[in-house]
Amino acid sequence: MPIEDSYKHKGMRRQLVNKIRAKGITDQNVLRAINTVPRHAFLDNAFLEHAYQDKAFQIGEGQTISQPYTVAFQSQLLQVKPGDKILEIGTGSGYQCSVLLELGAKVYTIEYNWPLHQRAARLLKTLGYQAHLVHGDGTKGMPSFAPYDGIIVTAGAPTVPMTLVEQLAPGGKLVIPVGDRKSQKMLLITKEPGGKITKKEFDHFSFVPLLGQHGWEK
Ligand code: SAH
Questions:
Q1: Does ligand 1 come within 6 angstroms of the Cβ of 75?
Q2: Distances (CA, A) of 9 to 68, 94, 127, 139
């Protein structure tokens, strides 16, 4: 069934964009992408009125779709250019993946949870979005398609997995929330063209835990 995107949805989306702009997101391309992706399609119908609030929301399997401000913040840090190859760890609902696609990226995304992986694959297809979706442990990255211009981790990590840093192209960026299970600091790790690794720290966020080999234990 095609997904309806009414004037009401579009209007609510514009208000959401105004809200995240007021919170400090300045990247016009990111704001445009948020204004384009029908976030309501990523939530159950029963929760429609929540789709355009600036809030995280349950998507089943104990997981959440990230808050729109958080999606915008991480996307802005990545500085995606059209044609960039981006790896996402934690497909979840597929919303962040769709925002990256609207920014012109070629997206590879990994999800650990099989039902969520399947659901996201179906939904993205329905919406006409094309990405490379894989089921597996994203803390190992996706070496077969490396290197990446950007890697975005959308679950909270205990430490920076070196496997991911290794899969960055020269000049590539890794955006990853690192901390404890409840609260994490957003980090921007850059592999300079010469190979030097630099790190910048940003605000605290609250993500669900990154599991797997280089993540938390279940
Ligand atoms: N980006 C998502 C939000 C994801 S929530 C969105 O836009 O909706 C974090 C997701 O990371 C959850 O779906 C969780 O199952 C997944 N996850 C946790 N550990 C993982 C791992 N090691 N590899 C891949 N996905 C993982």
A1: no
A2: 15, 19, 15, 35
